[in-house]
Structure formats: C-alpha cells, structure tokens
Design a protein that fits this description.
The chain has about 230 residues and is an alpha+beta fold. It contains three helices and eleven strands.
C-alpha cells in the first residue's frame, strides 16, 4: 500500500470519528434546560425553559414545570405563549417555610402550558417557556426544576433524573445554578444565560468539529488529486 492510499484511509477514519462526535454533541444539546439572565439569591428573576421536541412523528402538546417545595417561591407568574394556554397549580405546604421575612404556607408547585389545537411544537423544533419568580433562596447553590413533556401520541418524557456526578442520566432534570449578583451579571453579559443553561458549549463544539471535518475533507481531496497526478 503506497503512502497516498494509507493517508486516505487514515483521513477516512478521522472523518468518521468526527462525525460520531458531532452526533454526540447534538444529542447533548437536545435536553430540556433552564437558564436565567438575572437569578440572584434573595431577589426576583426570570426562568427560561428551553424545550426541544425530539419525536420524529409526534408534536409536543404540553409542558409542565415542577417548582421546589422545600425552598418555595413566594411569587410565580407565567409569560403567555401564543397558541398555548397556561395554568398554575397551588398546593398547601406540609410545613410552613420562612422566606425573606414572610411565612409561606402554600405555593405554586407546577406550571403547565398546553398547546391549542394545531399549535403543538412540531418534531425537531424547540421553544422557550418563561416564568417570573421570587424570591430565589439564599444559601443554595442550585435549584433542580423537573419538567414533564407530553407528546400527541401519548408518550411522556420526564426530565427529572438527578445527576450523581458520574455519567449524565438519559433524562436529566434542568438545573439552575445560583451565585452572587456580580457572578450572575458577568455570566449574563457574556452569554445571556446562567452557567448551566442552554447547551451553548455543545453548539460551539459542534461548530468547531464541523469546521475540522471540512478541513479534513479538503486535505483528503488534495491528497487524492496528488495521487492521481502522480499515477498519471
């Protein structure tokens, strides 16, 4: 086997490897995520849930966000979404919670958006559901906010698995990282989201790998042309 044939084989293997990495990066960015441009312990802010519709054939018909009961929000309001209705569920807490000088005995525990007829989220599309909440708890590093996604064919995707620090679970619950006000401002200005929000790192990796794949393709083409010229 001459050097040109060996080089073409090596480049082919590398190209396949990059393709698999791209698929992995795309899959990692397809989870339901939560971000906030202004979440701050002790303050009020906006939660943004980015929800992809991953089914090949069914539409997303409803999305339910589950809110914490151990550190409940005193105030919860939902932003309307065109073509969807929104409903909140308020429950009495098992034990009263002291927060920001107030005693909370009941709180909003779920918010559900339901698509009107013909307005479901189509396959391989995404949209964002927004809440205004407060106050964010102090002395807490992160909030786990499970999401239940229901498809038109009856399939239910429960994004409620908590990471144990090892491999990421198949259906991880969205997690909002909380920090000091200065840290939030810095992250917001840099990316428009909190540190654990929207898979932008995976998107950047995908773009980088895509550029690498194009470069390798160009190199492979050049080697092929040189080989043909040499053989002729």
């Amino acid at each position: 086997m001459n050097i040109f044939a060996r080089m073409r084989r090596v480049l082919a293997v590398v190209a396949v490897t990059i393709g698999l990495m791209l698929l992995g990066a795309a899959a990692a960015s397809a989870h339901v995520t939560v971000s906030s441009p202004d979440a701050e312990p002790g303050g009020y802010g906006k939660l943004v849930f980015r929800v992809p519709s991953e089914s090949d054939t069914a539409t997303t018909e409803s999305v339910t966000v589950q809110l914490p009961t151990d550190t409940p929000f005193r105030s919860v309001s939902a932003k309307p979404l065109a073509g969807w209705t929104v409903q909140t569920t308020t429950e009495k807490l098992e034990e009263p919670v002291e927060s920001d000088g107030f005693t909370i005995t009941e709180a909003v525990t779920e918010v559900t958006w339901t698509a009107k007829e013909g307005h479901g989220l189509q396959p391989h599309q995404f949209t964002e559901f927004e809440l205004s909440v407060g106050t964010f708890p102090e002395g807490v590093e992160s909030l786990t906010l499970p999401v239940i996604q229901t498809y038109s064919d009856g399939e239910i995707a429960a994004w409620d698995q908590v990471s144990t620090g090892e491999e990421e679970p198949d259906s991880p619950a969205p997690v909002l990282q909380l920090g000091a006000a200065s840290e939030i401002a810095e992250v917001s200005s840099a990316s428009g989201a909190s540190a654990a929000s929207d898979g932008s790192g995976a998107d950047a990796l995908a773009r980088m790998l895509g550029a690498g794949g194009l470069a390798l393709g160009a190199v492979a083409l050049l080697w092929t042309l040189l080989a043909r010229r040499r053989s002729s």
